[in-house]
Structure formats: structure tokens, C-alpha cells
Amino acid sequence: MRFGVVTLVLLALCAALGPPLAPYDPAKGVGGINEPPSAAHLFGTTGQGQDVLSQFLYGCRVSLLIAFAVALITTLISLAVGLLAAYAGGRTDDVLSSLTNVFLVLPGLPLIVVLAAFLPPGPVTIVAVLSLTGWAFGARLFRSQALSLRQREFIAAARLAGESRWRVLAVELLPNMLSIVAAFFVNQVIFAVGAEASLEFLGLGDSGQVTWGTMLFWAQNGSALLQGAWWTFVIPGLGIALTAFSLALINHAVDERTNPRLRASDLLRQAIGMRQRSAVLVTPVVRDA
Amino acid sequence: MYLLRRLGFYALAAFVAVSVNFFLPRLAPGDPASTMFANYSTQLTPAALDGLREAYGLTDDPLVVQYGRYLWALLHGDLGVSLSQFPSPVTDVIATGLGWSILLGVVSVAASFVIGCALGAVAAWRRSGIVDRVAPPSLIFVGSFPYFFLALLLMYLLAFDWGVFPLGHAYDDGLEPALTLEFAGSVATHLALPVFTIVLVSVGSWTLNMRNAMVGVLSEDYLTLAEAKGLAPRHILLRHAVRNALLPNVTMLGMAVGMVFSGQILTEIVFSYPGLGFLLLQAVTTVDYPLMQALFLIITLSVLAANFIVDSLYALLDPRVRQVVAA
């Protein structure tokens, strides 16, 4: 958990302060070709002689911005579709649910590739394409969550008290879904960072722009691998992996803390101070005398 | 009845994919079809040009007529002619890659499913044991890498630097495809690294899901009862816990097939493995729209078919699924 938060903060600092701190212009050739890491070029240089550290810092900003934009948009779409389906019910629900399931079952990458190939390359296309294809899982998740919440007494009470549909939605329902929405958002950032890099790696991004994905694209194109220039693809790859890993760690830790059964068994062990003898979990019951 | 309903749903999904495939080039801004048309017009025969004009809506016919004709051609398995490998029909080009992709996909999904479920079961059974403390975080870490990056890294270390595995392709160049032991061995060694990559990336989610499902099952009353009856722990684990925890994972198998197919595309590209993904990259780089679109359709339909097989499997495994619909 701590490692996840620290890494994420560091990456965010890179994105915010990176470009002014970058030692060189990321687009210009400032050194030899495929120079290994040295004092002048901490992360070495690329096949075009660009400074990998500067590219990493500039790429960080664009890559993280795209990832967060995609996560934000898909979360909003999912919420809208999921809540509308759960709340409207009937035919609207049928249509929206079928649409969601169709999008869920269509394999993502081929669709993304075909969409991106027909649209002009660039960050806007990437955000649009990934948003269009990434919302379905969330819509299903939020719909079922909203449906089960709707059965609870406090929602019924709010409705009986004469509150409007929208007020019930915004004030009663949404706050109770926040944790699941947040978890979905985090997962979407992970998905978007990887998918964006994949698209650009395939050459479907704007190859003139510096992002982690295009760095990998150029490394592959210049067959950096076969020339032993590992730093040209390990550095951007690590950026992507660290972003995804830190977010996954945070999600995992939050889940571990909010799952009552996991927590109960830990508490039990601490309280009684004995090692659990069997793997079977028991939900402890507290009895007041 | 349950399977019929699923079949209807997949038919709907297939129809959506087919329609997207038709409307996309016609609605895209900047008229990409004309660009492609201009690029290739000097290399093609007049008949092929007419076919292309029709396929990309550069005719004067109304949209409905074009759509009808497109569906009709599709029903006859006619997906057009590949531009980059003219004059082969797209279907011939794809047929060369389909077998390799299916081989790679089936082997990697099966391997990661079995390994992941085993790890997850052990992690939940020995909570806070070595497997539980080491496996989930390290697998999440490995799983955070994009497929193609892990593939590049593995290729660099194992194939390029140490030379343990071949650098790419599906079998040795010198060999002719034949049913010999030598050929099978060559295919297996070329398959190992791509499969290893996919398993590494995808095994983490199976492990986590299995672990969570096991934790849920372990707190069920029937397990407490089984333990109280004095059954052997091994017996409880295998016969009572794992069997029940596996079910939700089987449902996810269908979705995983789609995910793996997506990741597989990138893995194939890195290892120059001659499957559908490798063809897709060629189609993208040569702006071969007919090939690209046909690949999109074939991959989508394969994934839908795989999902249907998983659904049938699920109905076979869990009698409740059949009964609920019957009731």
C-alpha cells in the first residue's frame, strides 16, 4: 500500500514537473546513437540520438493525462448507462443491458485497432477509441450494484418520503457506490495506460509525439533490441508497469481492508493470539454479557 | 433452452460486429477509403477495382442496397481481396494464420487457467503462507506490464542474449510442415516463449480470482461441517473447496478468451509468430483495409464461438444453470 502510494506520487510529480526538469529537448538528437546510460545521459540515448530521460519525463505527462482522461470518461459513461438501466428498468434496461453485454463480449483490441486505423492518429483519437470500448464492464458492475442497493430500506424510505428520483440517485444511491466506483476508476487507469501503449506500439498513434507508447514504437522500429539497446524499451516499459503496479497495489490493499471476512480472521488471530489451525474461515460473533 | 438463448445473444453480438465493420469506413472522417483507393489503384485489375469501389461505398447505390450486398457476400464467405498480397482473397491469407493463432491461444489459456487456479487455491488454503504472501503481489507486478513489453524483455533475455529459445516464427525455416517428431519439436520450442509470455501476464488474475472465490467458499457452513466430520484436509480442499470455487472462474473463462486474444495479437507481433495478430500488423502498416476488416471479423467471431463453447461447458458443470431456466 505504502509502496503503491509513494510510486504513484513520484510518477505524478514526474508528469507535473518533468518537462521543465528535463535536461534536453526530447525530440532533438543530442547525443550519439544508442549510447548506454552515462553521466551525460542518465538513461542513455535512442536510435535517433535523443535523450531517453527527457523523453521519459515528457512521455510521462502525455501518457498519464491520456490514461486519466480515458478512465474519467469511461467511468462517467458506465455510471450513466448502469444507473439508467437499473433505475429505468423495463425495456430501457433490456436494451442497455444487451448493448453492454455485446460490448463486453466483443474482443477489445481488434475493435480498437480497426477504429483507430480509420480515424486520424493522435491523442484525441486514442482517448475517444479507448473510451468507446472501455465502458461496458463498469456499466454491468454499477447496474447490479444499484439494483441491489435499491432493495435496501433507506432507499425505500427516501422514496416514500417523497424525494425526487434524481435526489435519491444523487444523495442516497451514489455515495453508497463510491468505493466500487473508485475501484473501477483505478482499474480503468491501469487498462488505459496499457492499451494506449499497445496502440502506439502498433503504430496507430501519432508517432511524432513523445509518449511512453511511441518510445516503444521507435525502439521496436529501430530494432533496438537486436542491437542490445535495452534501455530504450526497458525505461518506458517500466514507466507503464510502475503506474499500473502502484495502482493495482492500492486497489488490492483497499479491497483487503474492506472485505469483512478477511478482516475478521485477521482480528481473530490478533485477539486470541493463536495461529489459525485450519484454513476454514469462521465469521466471529461478538456476545455482550 | 439456456444454450439457445445464449446462441441468440451471440448472434446479436456478431450482427453488431458485422455492422460496425460495414459502417465504419463509410462514416470515418477524411474518407480513408478514397486514400487507400488512390494508393493501390495502379496495381489492381479493373475487376478488383470495381469490387473495391463497392466494398467501400464509392458507388452511387443507396446505403441500404450496399448493406444488403455486403451481407450477401459475407454469407457466401466472400470477404474481398487482400490489397497488400494481391491477388489472394482475404480468406486465403487469413487461413494461413488462423491455425497458429488457435494453437497459441488454446495452449496459453489452458496453461494459465490451470496454473492460476492451482496457485490461488493454495494461497487461500494456506492464508499468509509463503504462496499467499509471494504469489499475488509478484503476479500483479508482472501482470502490470503490457503484453508486448514483457514479450520484448523475454525475447531479449532468453532468445537474443542467452539463445535458449528461437527468435521468432512458428518453426525452423529449413523444415517442411510434416507429421514428424522433428517438426513437432520445432513447433513446440517456437511456441514456448509466446505461451510463457501470455501465461505470465494472465495468470495473476486467475490466481486472485481463485483465491477470492476460495476465501468465500472456505467460510461456508458446509466446509465447517466437513471439517467437523473429521474429513482429511486434503479431501476437504480438493473435493469440497476447490470444486465449488472453480465455478465462477469457469464463467470468466469466456471473457478471458477475448482478453487473451487481444494480448496475443501483440505477443505474436513481437515474436513474428505467423498468426492473426501478425497479419493484423501487416494490414495496419500497409493500409490493407480489406484484410484488416476481415481479421477483425474473424477474430471477433472466433471469440464469440469460444464464449459459446465455455457457456456450454458451464451448463454441463453446473446443473443449476439448466434447472433455473427450466423452472
Give me some keywords for this one.
heterodimer; A: about 290 residues; mainly alpha; 11 helices; about 70% helix; elongated; B: about 325 residues; MetI-like fold; 2 domains; about 0% strand; globular
Q: Per CATH, what is the topology of the largest domain in chain B?
A: MetI-like fold
What's the N-to-C terminus distance of chain A?
A: 38 Å
* Assigned CATH class of the largest domain in chain B: Mainly Alpha
Structural class from helices and strands of chain B? mainly alpha
- Largest interface by Cβ-Cβ < 8 Å: A-B, 55 and 70 residues
Looking at the structure, what is the overall shape of chain B?
globular
Q: Beta fraction of the residues of chain A?
A: under 5%
Poorly predicted residue ranges of chain A: none
CATH architectural group of the largest domain in chain B: Orthogonal Bundle
- CATH level-4 homologous superfamily of the largest domain in chain B: MetI-like
- Measured as a percent range, the helix fraction of chain B is over 70%
Largest sheet of chain A: none
Helix content, binned percent of chain A: over 70%
Number of helices of chain B: 13
Task: Describe the SSE topology.
The complex is a heterodimer of chains A (289) and B (327).
Chain A: H1 2-21, H2 52-88, H3 90-105, H4 108-118, H5 123-134, H6 136-150, H7 153-160, H8 165-201, H9 212-221, H10 231-258, H11 260-272
Helix pairs in contact in A: 1-2, 1-10, 2-3, 2-5, 2-6, 2-8, 2-10, 3-6, 4-5, 5-8, 6-8, 7-8, 8-9, 8-10, 9-10
Chain B: H1 2-27, H2 32-40, H3 46-55, H4 63-75, H5 90-125, H6 130-144, H7 147-161, H8 181-218, H9 221-228, H10 233-270, H11 276-285, H12 289-317, H13 319-326
Helix pairs in contact in B: 1-12, 5-6, 5-8, 5-10, 5-11, 5-12, 6-8, 7-8, 7-10, 8-10, 9-10, 10-11, 10-12, 11-12, 12-13
